[in-house]
Design a protein that fits this description.
It is built from 13 helices and nine strands. With about 350 residues, it is an alpha/beta fold. It folds into two domains: about 170 residues, 3-Layer(aba) Sandwich (Rossmann fold), CATH 3.40.50; about 140 residues, Glucose-6-phosphate isomerase like protein, domain 1 (Rossmann fold, 3-Layer(aba) Sandwich), CATH 3.40.50. Helix 2 packs parallel to helix 6, helix 3 runs antiparallel to helix 9 and helix 9 runs parallel beside helix 12.
Length: about 350
């Protein structure tokens, strides 16, 4: 039986306090926004830049995806997200690089930051400390701190997003970023209150997914980021498989792949559609036509509608619903959502080979 968010926390297996920190996302985002409320000195402006590169992995790196989704339509220079230690060859003296690592110890991000400093790029790091902060400061870059008490990088999206968007606003890439952050805080508080009640949308979606695997589709840049976030949270919180893609691209390839093995896929997949108010004009019709075909090959189709004033508010709204939904999946399965032993083992194995 699915636990409600009003049940005592002691009733849940949650050694790192993931429920509390997730429900506190609005406070986290508000606190992080206050820390960057003033203009950030020393940043190059858009007229002095050829591009912006955001480097980061995992739960830290998704803040770069948020920036690219929001700034992409209006930024005067390209915003490129890199999730690899290799630095693009075009990075140089007219580049602004934002390095994201909650812990400050992410090997790929540290390697990339070292390279961009050697090339003379302007480097800003968003981190709680560690070698990344030391490297950035020693190289003359800027360091924006993150609250180190947050238990896991994936639980610190608000703390990472606020400084990234503030940098973008101050560099002339995203007008009104701080206003969007304020609107997102309002919406997150509203949604958190509704998610604390029994029978809420996150609990309902978790119940419908059950023991199947979520296939998460979103539309456009905002929906794509939300879908990736949902997938990653299901991977890390209940430690379960999940998959994602974005429309309209689904309609040009993946949709065709669900035709032959419906007898299998409808036993193991639940389609989750993340909708928002900033979709292109034809997306609603695409979802409808896709659903006509997908009904026969998935166990269920769940639709989650974003709420909020502005694109960031709606994106963060979808994020919170997905985060809480994934915690319900973990609780139902008796899984502690905090620890990530498979990833810890991977990091330890890689460290032992260095």
């Amino acid at each position: 039986m699915t636990m409600t968010s009003t049940e005592p926390l002691a009733a849940r297996l949650d050694t790192l306090g993931m429920w509390d920190v997730t429900f506190g996302l609005a406070d986290q985002l508000e606190a992080a926004t206050r820390r960057v409320s003033g203009f950030l000195p020393g940043l190059p402006t858009a007229g002095e830049l050829d591009h912006v590169v955001v480097m980061g992995m995992g739960g830290s790196g998704i803040a770069g995806d948020v920036l690219a989704a929001l700034a992409g339509p209006s930024s005067p220079v390209p915003v490129i997200v890199v999730k690899d230690p290799a630095v693009p060859a075009f990075v140089g003296a007219r580049s602004l690089v934002i390095a994201l690592s909650f812990s400050g110890t992410t090997a790929e991000t540290i390697a990339g930051a070292s390279e961009v400093l050697e090339r003379g790029a302007c480097l800003v790091s968003v981190t709680s400390g560690g070698p990344l902060a030391a490297l950035t400061a020693s190289g003359g870059g800027g360091v924006l701190g993150v609250d180190p008490s947050i238990p896991m990088p994936r639980a610190g999206l608000g703390a990472m997003v606020a400084p990234v968007l503030a940098v973008a606003e101050d560099a002339g890439l995203l007008d009104g970023a701080r206003e969007q952050l304020a609107a997102a805080v309002v919406q997150l508080r509203r949604r958190a209150e509704s998610l604390s009640r029994a029978g809420n949308v996150a609990e309902g979606v978790a119940r419908r997914i059950g023991r199947t695997w979520p296939l998460v589709y979103g539309a456009g840049p905002l929906g794509a980021v939300a879908a990736v976030r949902w997938k990653n949270q299901v991977n890390e919180n209940p430690k379960a498989p999940a998959f994602c893609h974005t429309l309209p691209e689904v309609c040009h390839n993946e949709l065709c792949g669900w035709g032959q093995h419906g007898d299998v896929t409808r036993q193991v997949l639940t389609l989750v559609e993340l909708r928002h108010g900033f979709e292109s004009d034809d997306i609603g019709r695409r979802f409808q036509l896709m659903d006509d075909q997908m009904l026969e090959v998935v166990a269920d189709i769940c639709v989650v509608e974003a709420e909020g004033d502005g694109p960031l508010a709606q994106l963060m709204d979808l994020v919170l619903v997905g985060d809480i939904m994934s915690l319900h999946l973990a609780a139902d399965a008796g899984v502690d959502p905090g620890p990530i032993p498979a990833l810890d083992a991977m990091k330890a194995g890689l460290s032992s080979e260095l």
